[in-house]
Amino acid sequence: MSTTKRADIGVVGLAVMGANLALNFADAGNTVVVYNRTTSVTDDFMADNTDKALVASETLEELVDRLEKPRKILLMVKAGGPVDAVIADLVPLLDQGDIIIDGGNSRFTDTERRVEQLAEKGIRFLGVGISGGEEGARYGPSIMPGGDPAAWPHVESLLKGIAARASDGAPCCEWVGPGGAGHFVKMVHNGIEYGDMQVIAEAYDLMHRGLGMTPNEIGDVFDDWNRGKLQSYLIEITAQILGMTEGAEPLIDKILDAAGQKGTGKWTVMASMDLGQPTALVAEAVYARIVSSDPDRRLSLASIYPSPIGQLESVAIEDVEAALYASKIISYAQGFRLLDGASKEYDWDLDLGIVASLWRAGCIIRAAFLEDIMTAYKSTSGLADLTEEPFFSDALLSAEHSWRQVVSGAARSGIPVPAYSSALAYFDGMRSPRLPANLIQAQRDFFGAHTFERVDRPRGEFFHHEWAETD
Prior knowledge:
By secondary structure, the chain is an alpha/beta fold. It has helices spanning 16-27, 39-48, 60-65, 81-90, 108-119, 133-139, 152-162, 181-210, 215-225, 233-242, 264-275, 280-292, 295-304, 317-346, 352-358, 370-379, 390-413, 418-430, 437-448, and strands spanning 9-12, 32-35, 54-56, 72-75, 99-102, 124-131, 142-147, 177-178, 245-246, 249-250. It is 53% helix and 8% strand. The longest helix is centred in the middle third of the chain and has 30 residues, at 181-210.
């Protein structure tokens, strides 16, 4: 095609996500110039898409030269060192005011650093969270942009033009905040995704081992749940997975029970510890994957410790559904607490209602009840905890009996439910007027003179007792 018209956006990196985003931009009416370090990848991509408004470049210099000013360049390369390497190669080629967009799963602290460093050179940098996998990238992802606010007006129409649309027609793309806010929101999204997958897996395990149901029968249950309050992308694909066969056997039974991870769940837990926010369910989901990753050790221990697994007592499918829903509410409540804590710590001024709105379509955790979360934050100014909102508090109280039945029944049957147990412990802890932390603080004061506060004195006054004194 002719290259007399300069391109609207450049895409660096043509792996699955980069290639599909480039096609999405082109379908939205943009001219896109593409570059991949391996030239043959670019050649193959161009050969497969001759009908699109795409321009190939063999070098970064060519890519930069073919872009309309201010240049807008989307990086879809591996997080970490590769991003810094491409930025280092690009900066000498750019002019002040040009915009670099990192659309990968970069750690938010790296984005904070890059925003500051590039601003000193007059380059505007955006860290943009993109969720939706291959299909989302191609036909409409959820997009969470943050970084240099001065860059947003120049890319807003581009990004909103390729984003997924919620049921009300709004694009699932809106400015999140400065610095690393966009990538932080994406990180928390991924942490919640870990939690969602774990609570679903525990429901499957309870029905399979505890209730003796076949994968196909369990798939039918998930399909039914997807028509109600648990409607979500992950519930939908779980039903499809459990119905898949290879020959006459369920494919799920042939898959090794060792789950991998790429690190964003771990980052979420680490950030929660830094900020003093309890994302305990995400932590349990991360650790559950770690436990699963050593099947040989588990087989060895199974020979030492015979399992008590038997039929779950006094637990019905409806109880499992309630436990899953309640645990899911807790997971999201913890995630939004983390977002609120980060917003205050880093002065991002996150609008949690907007964040919820971005996840309604296009992303992996899209679910019907995100509409309820969005409504809660938009209607209740300064909502500190999602579990305080009447819609969710009523749901938790309604689920409580079933939730306890499932957790206690699973314990008796030897079926691990770390996410359900953790969520219930958080629920009980947060509603306890008094916890045994008074003893912990006394112990700390005994061995380390760390002091303590008193219930009969105002908060903020600290005391030390000479515990080892003798009469």
